[in-house]
Amino acid sequence: MSAFRIDGLQYANWSAGIFDQMGQGGLDAVHVTIAYHENFRETVLNIEKWNRWFERFPHRIVHGRTAADVRAAKKVGKTAIIFGLQTPAPIEDDIGLVEILHTLGIRFMQLTYNNQSLLATGCYEAEDPGLTRMGREVVEEMNRVGLVVDMSHSAERSTLEAIEHSTRPIAITHANTSYWHPARRNKSDDILRALAESGGMLGFSMYPHHLKGGSDCMLAEFCEMIARTTEIMGTTQLGIGSDLCQDQPDSIVEWMRVGRWTKKIDYGEGSAAAPGFPPQPDWFRDNRDFPGLAAGLRGVGFSKDETDGILGNNWLAFFDANFGPA
Fold first, then answer.
1. H, E, C per residue of 32-92
2. Angle, CA of 46, 48 and 54, to the nearest 5°
3. Which fold would CATH assign to domain 6-322?
4. What residues does each domain of the chain span?
5. Which of the residues 2, 3, 153, 320 has an alpha carbon 20 to 30 A from that of 79?
6. What is the pLDDT of residues 179-231, one digit of tens each?
7. In what helix (H) or strand (E) does residue 254 lie, and over which residues does it extend?
């Protein structure tokens, strides 16, 4: 397989400049967030916005619904944009909307975004009772239609139960490992083992709150963490999910953290002294830095094939197996 370059999660302030940078960085596909707290109708409006971007920038981006779309995009030097939800809010309380959203092109959906949802528990809750009755039903429906279960923002028990209940591999699209840095959203060794045994994917995040040392984390440290993770998961189920939030105003952090569930400011993984977006590490400022990850991975002992897998080929294989009906 030729070397594909795929980022498993971004939420940027989309623009012609960012789309050009995707091309300059050799990105063949990017999974983009199109909802954090939005209901169904609002999510449809966000899809409409993307349709206009596809019309305005047809030389740079295309809508990706399948792995074949990613391959086709690569052949013509474009980036396939894959839609995902960081929340189950768009299905509201209607399981029938799972299939509708898949039909509209959604390919990933988180069962929670930090808080308790109708489906599961987020990583910021004090108690984690696991999947709800509706959560189990929705996972089964997602399995049926080919909408990937994403547990990036979910709590421990809920994540383990989602892995166990799902008949298809799930994804944690953007998180790191808690043994390396104990951020609330980074994942335990127990989760990594269960994910590996079930065929699931882990996308490593470059969002500073998930990095040991934050914005000062070094590329070698990040890649050493990936190398250690292979002791649990091997190399074929690992990818990148940068969680790049490029060019976003700090007000977007407030939207992400607060949404509609509180009147108070919730700083989440940040701090009261610095509630906005932290600076990216200097080795991954934007999409143009994606190629530099290869040297970091090779520097800690990964082979060329293993490096190509982590930087995209593993995601492509996962898309092949999981974006369509069971």
1. EECCCCCCHHHHHHHHHHHHHHHHHCCCCEEECCCHHHHHHHHHCCCEEEEEEECCCHHHC
2. 110
3. TIM Barrel (3.20.20)
4. 6-322
5. 153
6. 999 999 999 999 999 999 999 999 999 999 999 999 999 999 999 999 999 99
7. helix 250-258
